[in-house]
Amino acid sequence: MATFKEYLRFTDEMEYMDKQIRLLGEVNLSEDQQEELEEVDKEINLLVFAHPKCPDCSIVIAVLEAMRRFIPSMNVDYRKRSEDKELLLQYSPEGKIPTLFIVDGIKVTRIFSEYPENLKELIQNSEEEKEKFHKGMFNEEIYKQILGYLR
């Protein structure tokens, strides 16, 4: 099980580690969002396939880690696609990253793959929208998609 710190070491290039830390620092959850997260009172286990060099991953992981600060019972297991590809493909045949799963016993449910579902078509069809995604302009949608599975 890789922690966030171990996830950062999926690359040995400081540029990508620093970018991930910077993006995390730029995620500002409102007081209402913080309260919503603090109300999650069950153990949450997430399996996350991501890599710090992936710009889509960096923004999603920044939002996820910001959320995790307010849910002490949330466990996140980070995996590299290159090392656990069979496992990723078992639950998400596209094999894209980032992909987030919630694990409840033996039940594994995909939260989303690559982009939140309500943004996927918009971002895939527009470089401008993809750039906005990478700049954090869709963090609210990332937050909502993840939160929907944590309740």
UniProtKB/TrEMBL annotation:
Q: Which domain of life is it from?
A: Bacteria
Q: Which InterPro entries match?
A: Thioredoxin-like_sf (IPR036249)
Under Pfam families, the record lists: Thioredoxin_9
Which PROSITE patterns did the record assign? GLUTAREDOXIN_2
Can you name this protein?
A: Thioredoxin family protein
